[in-house]
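Journal club side-thread
Mid-discussion, someone asked how the predicted structure for our own chain would compare to the paper's figures. Pasting it here so we can look after the session.
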Amino acid sequence: MTRAPHPLPVALLALVFLVGMIVVGGLGDVAPARADDDDAAKPSDEQLEEIERLLKALDADDPTAREDATDALIALGKVALSAVRAHVGEAPSAEARMRAEQIVRELERWGGGAPTEFAIQELFAAVREANAAAELVGPSSESVLRALAQVKALAAIAAVAAGKEPGPLPVDPATLTPAAPTTSMNAALVVAPRVEGTVARGCVIFADEFVRLSNAQDCIIVSRVGVRLSSSKNCVIVAGAFLGQSRSEASLLVSGGGASLTSGTDVVVAAAEGFTFTRVEGGTTINTPPGDARFARRAQELDAVEEPRLDLEGLWADNPLAGKIEVTDVLRSVASRGFLGTASNLVLLRTTDGRGEFVAREGAPVLMPDGKPLPELEGWTLRMAESDRGGRYVLFSDGEREALFRD
């Protein structure tokens, strides 16, 4: 028979332990237990070698190598956390220690590691929350941080899928100034339902509806519905329903619907409903079904890969106006085609009961010839209308629900 231990010796042992801890260094010096230590991911032998190499590179002579190592360790997530924590006390220089502390803070901010999966629904939920704020939001606001965490995960996953090393984002969000949309934007964090202008450089743009710009460079652009650009360079661009561009270079282009591009160089494209292009040099597609090849000037083989961690599905499954109206055409305004500022595109639609064809203008309700609201669309407003070689994209909203038509 096993006898239970007497409670007195246990209490005495506990008292001796407490006194010993106080004598040695005080209870305040005891490191707090971490909830994520017990279930932290264990690196493989190959990952451990890579982590050790990157930790040494935090003290490299080349500033670019130090920055790349920092970004790569953050991208590794939980598997690097324990080793980087230990490196804080072992770093050979003040800068290496500072970088190690920065990496630990970045990984711990998201519960022990940077996100390892990207879900476009989560990204747009954060963008919508940021847009719901009553005032300009800053880089440290919770909704902006959540959105940026998803963008970081997206960029890292896409880089690995395309056979590239994960690198830094095009712009450091912490250095940006909150600003309202203007014609020309520079080093700004812009959160607005619609963003229309000519130039954006070094910006983060989170739009709840759409973005129309002539040129974007070194930017992160996220629009819950659509993005239309003349050109982009070194950007991460994410659109919920469509992404249309004339030219793009060294950019990541992601769409929950379709994507179209006239000319591209060194682009990575993930489009849930296909990618239409004319000429692309050095391109990779991820989780993208074949697009319309009628416009390609010649047969072009793009590297096509599948990446299960990149989830682009389930954004616009329901359309409450389906079966009531049909969109027959989208007429883009001259301003929209020329990127000269605010555009007001038109939509031609007809009712399914055959009562006739009607015209809708962006930002306005749909009226019949007598000035009364069209019954099928009473309370609804045309929020966005776009068309390109990839198809037509039309969004209606009644303030609570949204109906997206695309073909």
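Post-session note: The two ends are 78 Å apart (CA to CA).
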